[in-house]
Amino acid sequence: MVYKIKFTGQFKKELKLAKKQGKDINKLFKIVDILAQKKVLDIKYKDHALISNYKGFRECHIEPDWLLIYKYYDDILVLSLSRLGSHSELF
């Protein structure tokens, strides 16, 4: 089963910024493809659940200081890509 991918407005802005910064967008979408199939990411991506304001969301490391925050909506089979950026930009 493959989840439909949705982008938040904030994610779209941050994706545009990442492109301007010269980030390897292919790395991002390789991870997104894995997540859309709800497969487990390799341990090197440090995928984990978040707490507090981001309760219910997950975070993974595309690069050491380039993060993806996302959330699964299992009832409607949607993977929502919420935020993208460095630790200092996101937290």
Outline of the structure:
The protein has 91 residues and is of the alpha+beta class.
Give structural notes.
The protein is of the alpha+beta class and 91 residues long. The chain has a single domain, classed as RelE-like (YaeB-like fold). The chain contains three helices and five strands, in the order βααββββα. It has helices at residues 9-20, 25-36, 87-90, and strands at 4-7, 48-49, 58-63, 66-73, 78-85. The protein has a five-stranded mixed sheet. It is globular.
- Oligomer status: single chain
Distance between the termini: 32 Å
Topology-level CATH name: YaeB-like fold
Report the order of strands and helices.
Answer: EHHEEEEH
**Tell me about the biggest sheet?**
5 strands, mixed
Which homologous superfamily in CATH is the superfamily? RelE-like
Number of strands: 5
What percent of residues adopt helix (DSSP H or I)? 25-40%
Uncertain runs are none
Number of structural units classed as domains: 1
Q: What is the arithmetic mean of pLDDT?
A: 97
Q: In percent, how much strand structure appears in the residues? A: 25-35%
DSSP helical segment count: 3
What gross morphology would you assign? globular
Quickly give the structural class. Answer: alpha+beta
Keywords: Toxin-antitoxin system
Protein name: Toxin-antitoxin system, toxin component, RelE family
Active site: 87 (proton donor)
Pfam families: YafQ_toxin
